């Protein structure tokens, strides 16, 4: 029985008695039944439909039967139990229609993922262009070398990553560069994407007409053929061949991870007698300059950690990693833990999971510069400029004495020597520079970007640019891999073109962050830092519930794919077997090394982590 409180003469509170209202689209059989209370007003349900469908509440009319006739309900009235809704054709959002194709620039992981996303939804009016002669993108065609492997796990890094497709079969947990390039090409063929891809095609100019899709198509796109052997990241040389122009409704650009090496020249480089190179773009012949040599790796980012593994595989005699600050690196188990999570792993648990590996190298992750925690370490935040280098070899190589991490500055070089600011001298034969990457100013030029509004250029829903963000800024950890982000970006960019009223609502909120180029650190406007990206991850679906509904299962997909590909027992066995193989191999090559320690993680430990996170190791 509903209880009322006397508020004054003739005043009673609105009834909260539960009820249901049946909404029917006028002229159709489509029905939606919603839970309400007796006092629910017409305007409340109009606002619900407005958010769901990306329309204005004033576009809707609620019509109900009054005796033998019909009448329009007013916004302030209590909604009736059966209502006809006019002003819409369906309770499903209606997509905007475009004649000119959608343009996707970049046939790497994200561009291909976006193409598959469109095909799965019956949308075929798009084209993908890329400068190279095969699919795969900057990271795997230009930056990787033949020993490069995926640092994260296959389960959250593959083109079949969505709610409908099966996981890949017959691939390694940490596939090599060539294995991944074969996967990209194979999936593009099997899923019918290849006919929509134009390779060896450079976009020279994009005309921008108007401000958003409300003003019509984006404008003309001007392309030119590229030489077949092009595989770089810089603007290709003009060829004058196959110059074409076509209209595009929008441009989604995926320029890859940061593309150009950040450069720094040491004093005395002309005196150094050994080999020195930026260790990216497959320019280093590791067999010649690493095997049996003493190597210095300059930098402690993700690519630096990757180069430790590469140098170990090429039997370097000794590795020095010299860096100004020691960033957090991520053992494979901790990466797996984040990628299988739903909800995300709390920062305190994530740092705790790093401890067993860091104990092997006499270090405490809790004391690292990037970790901020409260006194009892229940609330943790990680903030560092470099992304995590992921891998177990880093910890094994340091623990056995094959690699030494030195936090210091290089003062100068001399013949076969590196002189550090501390006064220490390193006798080395090879220096590999890995100071990280910078973005391409060409992206800003091509899409005429002075200010980014979120992921969008100049507040234009027709110009979308997304790439992995430099650095780590998080208090909880949901993923260390690209596929969850690639799916989310594809959904987001497409949604704002198909439902431009949601875009108008998002812009009107004033919540989207803005970003301009920062020439002091060589950062173009399109490169958003981790702080900016994190803010949008939660804010955009909240302001646009229809997009939130599209993305609501993304975390479930991530967990499902990860556990299907990598059950915890099998994953731990693979990690331990590889650890033991490396340790045995290095010890045989150099008996002076310390004996390899046992793998620092056990099944019991991992299950304890899962229990602390309120999760299980079984796919739900």
UniProtKB/TrEMBL annotation:
GO molecular function: flavin adenine dinucleotide binding; monooxygenase activity
InterPro entries: Auxin_biosynth/cation_transpt (IPR050982), FAD/NAD-bd_sf (IPR036188)
SUPFAM superfamilies: FAD/NAD(P)-binding domain (SSF51905)
Keywords, sorted A to Z: Oxidoreductase
Signal peptide: none
Keyword Ribosomal protein appears in the UniProt entry: no
Protein name: Flavin-containing monooxygenase
Organism in which the protein naturally occurs: Effrenium voratum
């Amino acid at each position: 029985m509903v209880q009322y409180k006397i508020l004054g003469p003739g005043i009673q509170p609105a009834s909260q008695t539960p009820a249901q209202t049946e909404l029917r689209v006028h002229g159709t059989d489509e029905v939606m039944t919603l839970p309400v209370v007796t006092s629910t007003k017409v305007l409340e349900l109009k606002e619900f439909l407005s958010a769901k469908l990306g329309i204005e509440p004033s576009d809707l009319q609620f019509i109900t039967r009054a005796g033998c006739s019909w009448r329009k309900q007013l916004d302030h009235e209590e909604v009736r139990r059966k209502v006809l809704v006019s002003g819409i054709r369906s309770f499903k959002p209606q997509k905007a229609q475009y004649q000119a194709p959608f343009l996707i620039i970049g046939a790497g992981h994200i561009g291909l993922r976006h193409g598959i996303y469109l095909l799965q939804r019956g949308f075929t009016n798009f084209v993908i262009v890329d400068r190279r002669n095969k699919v795969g993108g900057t990271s795997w065609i230009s930056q990787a070398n033949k020993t490069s492997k995926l640092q994260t796990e296959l389960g959250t890094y593959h083109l079949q990553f969505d709610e409908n497709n099966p996981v890949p079969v017959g691939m390694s947990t940490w596939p090599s560069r060539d294995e991944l390039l074969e996967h990209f090409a194979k999936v593009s063929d099997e899923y019918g994407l290849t006919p929509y891809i134009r390779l060896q095609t450079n976009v020279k100019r994009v005309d921008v007409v108007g401000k958003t899709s409300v003003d019509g198509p984006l404008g003309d796109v001007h392309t030119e053929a590229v030489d077949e052997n092009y595989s770089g990241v810089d603007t290709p040389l003009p060829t004058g061949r196959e110059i074409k122009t076509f209209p595009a409704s929008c441009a989604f650009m995926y320029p890859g991870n940061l593309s150009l090496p950040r450069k720094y020249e040491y004093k005395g480089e002309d005196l150094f007698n050994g080999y020195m190179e930026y260790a990216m773009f497959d320019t280093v012949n590791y067999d010649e300059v690493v095997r049996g040599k003493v190597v210095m790796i300059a930098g402690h980012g993700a690519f630096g950690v990757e180069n430790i593994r590469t140098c170990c595989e090429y039997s370097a005699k000794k590795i020095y990693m010299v860096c100004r600050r020691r960033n957090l690196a991520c053992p494979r188990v901790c990466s797996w833990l984040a990628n299988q999570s739903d909800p995300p792993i709390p920062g305190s648990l994530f740092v705790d999971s790093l401890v067993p590996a860091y104990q092997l190298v006499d270090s405490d992750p809790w004391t690292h510069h990037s970790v901020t925690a409260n006194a009892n370490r229940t609330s943790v935040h990680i903030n560092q400029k470099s992304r995590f280098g992921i891998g177990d070899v880093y910890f094994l190589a340091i623990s056995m004495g094959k690699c030494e991490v030195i936090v210091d500055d290089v003062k100068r070089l001399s013949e076969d020597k590196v002189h550090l600011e501390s006064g220490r001298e390193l006798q080395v034969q090879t220096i590999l520079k890995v100071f990280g990457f910078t973005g391409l100013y060409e992206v800003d030029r091509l899409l005429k970007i002075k200010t980014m509004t979120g992921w969008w250029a100049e507040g234009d829903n027709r110009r979308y640019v997304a790439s992995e963000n430099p650095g780590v800024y998080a208090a909880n950890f949901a993923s260390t891999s690209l596929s969850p982000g690639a799916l989310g970006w594809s959904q987001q960019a497409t949604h704002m073109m198909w439902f431009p009223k949601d875009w108008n609502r998002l812009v009107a909120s004033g919540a989207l962050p803005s970003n301009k180029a920062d020439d002091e650190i060589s950062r173009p406007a399109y490169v958003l830092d981790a702080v900016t990206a994190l803010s949008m991850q939660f804010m955009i679906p909240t302001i646009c519930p229809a997009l939130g509904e599209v993305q609501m299962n993304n975390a479930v997909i991530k967990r499902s794919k990860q556990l299907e590909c990598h059950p915890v027992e099998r994953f731990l066995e693979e990690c331990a077997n590889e650890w033991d193989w490396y340790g045995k191999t290095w010890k045989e090559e150099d008996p002076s090394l310390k004996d390899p320690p046992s793998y620092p993680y056990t099944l019991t430990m991992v299950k304890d982590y899962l229990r602390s996170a309120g999760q299980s190791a079984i796919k739900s």
